[in-house]
Recover the amino acids of this structure.
């Protein structure tokens, strides 16, 4: 048995926070979370996933800076464990554990101990404190318990009563801590119990899951990722304006990227997917944010969906025009040069920085790309190492805005259009 019991460590630490909060209703957020990454991302744009659904997760990661993912003891299987580890190791997701550590498979707890994540104790404490802070009315738990006992007595001894009580208990667990307008949900349960309506009780249970998800998003200032048909079912006042706004931004980013044909395929091997995501996500976020900003209504602070749609349509039309022009051949040559000579450029810079270049670096101003590559390989300076490749990608990324500006002038277009074309071609090349 390990000397350090992480359940006991987290539980005892959070219990002290609970005691302090009960006394004066104040607490320092920094005291709740162990992870610096969690603290740094709390006030930033993010998405919170209710489960480890790889398909939805991978298709959404390109549109958000941070992703919180709730992990139950059964979310990560043997088949998905390697993907989970890869995403955590690359800081692409922050797991939120919904249960004590000892209820998870040992490989998961052994792996996550020293990784950025949110424990169940931190999750419940933070969520409860935030919801009590932003709710206009916090319901009395004693009154709630009294109503629950009354409901149990209504169906006592009747066939089907256990299933009714099960639906009620699940619903109450989902909406806890109880805040306004939870009395409305309880009133509906009173109706279901009095009428012995199992179907209605089941619908209320299903609704409670979406209420739970919306309050998670509200607590962590994140976008709510559930179908629109489920949002419509939520009682009025369940979702605040910030949660709606965050969701809208993610949806608009997704619409823009999809409309411009810049999707990163989620079906590829996870290592390749992560490489593409880390290379292109900053550009996709920057590009989509620029388009969203351009779609703001001059007379209204809200973004016009119609304007954004037409901007995307205009960019696609401009790309079609450029691709049929004679100057497009010149554009392709520039893009090809940038894509195919990243490692050559980075190797030259490495050699110069380490004092190994000598006449080789001096030749860089006169030699063509192919000749420079020949000289570097001959002198053993171009190794093609992983570090060299990474530096080459970084140089390519930093130079891209300047290249886009030059190409845009040459093909008589906008920098945004050229940027879209370059990203599209880069993703297409790397995905075959």
């Amino acid at each position: 048995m390990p000397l350090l019991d992480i359940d006991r460590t987290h539980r005892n630490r959070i219990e002290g926070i609970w005691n302090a909060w009960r006394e004066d209703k104040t607490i320092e957020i920094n005291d709740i979370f162990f992870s610096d990454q969690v603290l740094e991302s709390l006030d930033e744009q993010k998405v919170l996933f209710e489960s480890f659904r790889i398909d939805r997760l991978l298709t959404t990661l390109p549109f958000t800076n941070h992703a919180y993912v709730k992990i139950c003891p059964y979310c990560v299987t043997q088949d998905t464990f390697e993907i989970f580890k890869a995403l955590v190791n690359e800081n692409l997701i922050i797991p939120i554990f919904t249960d004590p550590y000892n209820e998870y498979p040992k490989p998961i707890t052994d792996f996550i101990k020293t990784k950025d994540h949110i424990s169940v104790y931190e999750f419940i404490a933070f969520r409860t404190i935030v919801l009590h802070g932003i709710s206009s009315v916090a319901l009395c738990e004693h009154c709630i318990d009294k109503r629950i006992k009354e409901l149990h007595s209504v169906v006592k001894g009747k066939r089907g009563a256990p299933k009714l009580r099960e639906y009620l208990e699940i619903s109450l667990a989902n909406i806890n801590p109880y805040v306004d307008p939870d009395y409305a949900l309880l009133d509906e349960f009173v109706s279901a119990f009095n009428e012995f309506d199992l179907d209605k009780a089941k619908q209320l249970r299903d609704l409670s899951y979406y209420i739970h998800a919306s309050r998670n998003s509200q607590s962590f200032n994140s976008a709510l990722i559930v179908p629109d048909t489920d949002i419509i079912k939520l009682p009025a006042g369940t979702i605040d304006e910030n949660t709606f706004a965050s969701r809208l931004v993610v949806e608009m980013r997704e619409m823009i990227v999809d409309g411009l044909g810049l999707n990163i395929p989620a079906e590829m091997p996870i290592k390749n997917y992560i490489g593409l995501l880390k290379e292109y996500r900053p550009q996709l976020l920057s590009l989509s944010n620029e388009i969203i900003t351009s779609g703001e209504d001059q007379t209204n602070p809200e973004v016009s969906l119609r304007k954004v749609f037409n901007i995307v349509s205009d960019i696609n039309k401009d790309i079609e025009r450029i691709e049929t022009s004679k100057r497009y051949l010149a554009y392709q040559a520039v893009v090809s040069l940038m894509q195919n000579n990243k490692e050559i450029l980075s190797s030259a810079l490495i050699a110069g920085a380490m004092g190994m270049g000598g006449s080789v670096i001096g030749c860089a101003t006169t030699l063509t790309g192919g000749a420079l590559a020949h000289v570097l390989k001959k002198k053993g300076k171009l190794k093609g190492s992983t570090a060299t490749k990474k530096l080459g990608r970084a140089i390519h990324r930093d130079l891209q805005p300047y290249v886009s500006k030059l190409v845009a002038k040459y093909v008589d277009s906008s920098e945004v259009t050229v940027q879209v074309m370059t990203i599209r071609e880069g993703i297409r090349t790397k995905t075959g």
User: Anything to note?
Assistant: The mean pLDDT is 78.
